[in-house]
From TrEMBL:
This is DNA-binding transcriptional regulator, MarR family. The keyword Plastid does not apply. One of its GO terms (molecular function) is DNA binding. The keyword Transferase does not apply. InterPro entries: HTH_MarR-typ (IPR000835), WH-like_DNA-bd_sf (IPR036388), WH_DNA-bd_sf (IPR036390). Keywords: DNA-binding, Transcription, Transcription regulation. Transmembrane segments: none annotated. Residues 1-140 form the HTH marR-type domain.
C-alpha cells in the first residue's frame, strides 16, 4: 500500500497518461491536426511566445535538450517550425513557428477545451480554482527541488 506522499505523484502520472492518450485521440479524430500531444508541448510554448531559443523551450516543455532537439527536427520536417541560427550568438538556435504551426493553435485550443470539460466534469468553479492552486504549489516545490539538485556539485 502507498503512503500519503506516494499516491499524489502516482495519480498525476496516471492522469498525464490518460490525458495524453485522449488528447492524441481527439487530435486524430479532428483530422486537421498535423501534430501529436508530445509535440503539442513545444507548439503550446511557442504559441505563448514566438520565437524562442532551444534553451528557453527546454524548461517550458519539461523535455531534455536531446529529446527536444529530435522533436524540433521532426516539427521542422512537418513544416510547423523553422530552426534558425541566432545572429548575435551562432551557438544558439531559434525556433520560429511557421504559418502552419501558428494555424494549428485553434485546433489545439479546441481539443484542450474538449478535454478540459471531461477533466473537470462534476467540479465546481471553487474546486477547480483550489485544485489548480494546489498543483501550482506542487510545481513550485518540484522546480525548487530540481534547481537545488542541479546546483549540487557532481
Amino acid at each position: 500500500m502507498m503512503n500519503t506522499y506516494e499516491i499524489g505523484g502516482y495519480l498525476v502520472s496516471k492522469i498525464q497518461h490518460y490525458n495524453g492518450r485522449l488528447f492524441n485521440r481527439y487530435l486524430t479524430e479532428d483530422g486537421r491536426a498535423v501534430y501529436n500531444a508530445e509535440q503539442g508541448k513545444i507548439l503550446s510554448a511557442l504559441w505563448e511566445q514566438n520565437p524562442q531559443t532551444v534553451s528557453m523551450l527546454a524548461p517550458k516543455t519539461g523535455l531534455a535538450k536531446s529529446s527536444l532537439t529530435l522533436m524540433l527536427k521532426k516539427l521542422e520536417q512537418q513544416g510547423l517550425i523553422t530552426l534558425e541560427q541566432d545572429e548575435s550568438d551562432k551557438r544558439k538556435r531559434i525556433v520560429v513557428l511557421t504559418t502552419l504551426g501558428k494555424n494549428q493553435q485553434l485546433i489545439g485550443d479546441e481539443v484542450s477545451e474538449k478535454l478540459g470539460r471531461i477533466f473537470y466534469q462534476g467540479f465546481s468553479e471553487t474546486e477547480i480554482a483550489a485544485f489548480e492552486a494546489y498543483l501550482k504549489r506542487i510545481e513550485t516545490n518540484l522546480v525548487a527541488a530540481s534547481r537545488k539538485e542541479e546546483e549540487k556539485p557532481k
